[in-house]
Amino acid sequence: MKRSVTRQKDTMRTITTDEIIARVRETCIEAACNLGEDAKKAIIEARDREESPTGKEVLSQIADNFEIAETESVPMCQDTGLTIVFVELGREVHLDGSLEDAINEGVRRGYKDGYLRKSVCDPLTRVNTTDNTPAIIHTKIVEGDKLRMIIAPKGGGSENMSTLKMFKPSDGIEAIKDFVVNTVKIAGGNPCPPTVVGVGIGGSFEKSAIIAKHAVIRTLGSKNPDASVAAIEDELLARVNALGIGPMGLGGSTTAFAVHVETHPCHIASLPVAVNIQCHADRHKEVIL
Fold it and tell me: What are the E-state strand segments in 51-143?
């Protein structure tokens, strides 16, 4: 047994916590200042097809804002978010310390060095933690010898408009669709539309919320690989944009860039559904070590 363990250790690839700290630090700053190419493309395309003159002007201003943020290396929004980190850790990776501690130290340094607003506080006393930690970390063990992290600053305005409901299985898919559309309708202009709407169907109470948040960080324009779920995404996007809420809630034909739906098997007696809304600053960056 000892020889087997030794051989396994010999095949492991070591990633140091110093490497993790450095990459998380720089990625926190980059995510706050540089919008992803998929989101830039979505904004320009929405501006070109927007039917409302006011909505078109708002989208033009949004595009200008992101260009200024990237050129001048300043945050695209004053709310630099609660740091969400999706981690895929290869089982052939050996870490020389705590992954969670390293991520939080990277966040701490990134928010300090990047002069990013620290928005994390105690839920009861409301006393600020002063360094935007702790991050919210979701870790998955996968095959391979790499560490992949998606770092997503999540603003409070859009997060506050998110919700979850425990449906009865007999309620059916139409009730779920109505729930998603009504959630966006109630949110109105509060989450700074155009939004990305992440929907998690199934799993458990907490799993539905996690997959809804994961759906938000999918590449804009991507489709669920299940054709039936992809059809639901298309229908929901059309219904959401027909609400007329428009860019920043000022009216128009673009209330959302995308509706992304993810599913997970659930208990026969349950049907949890979560809706997580992201603002037009669809901020997330990937790190692979």
Answer: 82-90, 93-95, 136-142
How many whole angstroms separate alpha carbon 132 and alpha carbon 228?
40
Which of the 8 DSSP states describes residue 246? -
- Digit-coded pLDDT (tens) for 44-85: 999 999 999 999 999 999 999 999 999 999 999 999 999 999
For residue 179, what are its two tokens? 């729930």
For residue 81, which of 159, 189, 25, 21 has the smallest C-alpha distance? 159
Determine the Cα–Cα distance for residues 35 and 190; give it in Å rounded to an integer: 21
State the pairing for strand pair 256-264/195-202.
parallel
Contacts 24+ apart (CB under 8 A), 60-64: 62/247, 62/280
DSSP-assigned beta bridge partners for residue 259: 197
Q: Report the C-alpha gap between 196 and 39 in whole angstroms.
A: 10
Q: Amino acid identity of 42?
A: A
